[in-house]
Amino acid sequence: MEPILTRKTIRFFFWLVLHGRCWTAERCFRHGLQPTDTCILCDQESESIDHILLGCVFSREVWHRCLLWAQLDALHLNPAGNAIPWWLAARKLIPRHRRKGFDSLFFMVGWRLWKERNKRTFDDAATHALQLASEIQEEAELWCLAGNRSLAALLAV
Fold this sequence. Notes:
Elements: H1 7-18, H2 25-30, H3 49-55, H4 57-69, H5 83-92, H6 96-122, H7 129-145, H8 149-155
Helix pairs in contact: 3-4, 4-7, 6-7, 6-8, 7-8
């Protein structure tokens, strides 16, 4: 069973994202801690935090499925862009009463993508994008059942 994480853990992770302090392959390579900076999720490009959260083909597949079931498939991902500016721009396109739910979804998907990256890096285990998106959907539904009204408003649960 996976330990329950608090909002503080996820907030701290996104603080690290905002300040460019996540230990991605790109950062480890730059500091001479590993021989390559290739993304462990797609094995195609350099692994920066923006690549993990938004640009990677694996991440885009997860995002596509999550946005589809949240009925936000009109939002377009910018694989070459930065994750935080994309989130801030995307939330402006969403009706006001659904924005907090989108914020929760953004943090949930971002956190789970980071955890998948770490699982592949440290545990040599992998989840398929479809399975990860399904797990995120199940978690979101549990959050709604637990009383997260903003996420429920987004997902119309």
